[in-house]
Amino acid sequence: MADPVILTCALTGSIHTPTMSPNLPVTADEMVEQAVGATEAGASVLHLHARDPRTGKPSAEIAHFEGFLPRIRQQTDAVVNISTGGSSQMSLAERLAPALAAKPEMCSLNMGSMNFGIFPLAGRFDSWKHEWEQGFLEATRDVVFKNTFADIEHILSELGDGCGTRFEFECYDAGHLQTVAYYLKQGLIRPPVFVQFVLGILGGIDASPEALVFMKATADRLLADSYRFSVLAAGRHQMRLGTMGALLGGNVRVGLEDNLTDGKGRGLAPDNAHQVARIRRILEEMGFTIAAPHEARAMLDLKGGDRVAF
Question: Is a pLDDT exceeding 70 seen at residue 173?
Fold first, then answer.
């Protein structure tokens, strides 16, 4: 029997801005409500960023995370996965502060520095809900998201060794898979390795079936049987490439961080739970089973929700 499919839901992220959708969770109450809804719909992992509740701007302030982390733990059994990516306009220390304080079961870890271009989104709107939005997007024309080898080693040591946190290794291109393989060989990463193929970000590999097959073949060659993978496809490619990922033996990530819509011509997704329910329905109709949180913990060798600091 095939393993159940782990559904990750990425609730809010740092790419989209409040002008783009009124359904993007911003406040602590909205984060908790959508986290509970996504878990009830079938997500076993919640990938979390925070925002300033007054302006909706991406935030790495510990207090903003503390507004929702304990409540999510109290109200769900989901695995909490805190971003160490933050945004490309935060320092490494800023990006790591919430995770170091919370000591979660999982964190995301971008496996390299890259151009991370979200500036094309600025051309889609003539007016903005908040003054910061347009400038934040335009700044990515000349900002590199920085995760050097030294940065990656620091994160692996401080969060992995220091906090017992496991990682979702976010790979935006094939070179990032080479870095995962290097650190696996060096013993700084131990199996099971959980790789997230990130498709469709300007500066990384495109969101296409060919790109997904290439990333899977590369990971198979480099990581063999030491890894599991998940598929994150940005925008309108979310559902079809997520489904393809499951057919290739992987897991799936959905959520408003990656895609604000309900599919081509279907308008905005009303919330994160809607996307989780939709991919769950697709996969179950194809004969897949969906992992419960306790199954995801076993598959990813996590320390357990009772060993976090929130």
Answer: yes
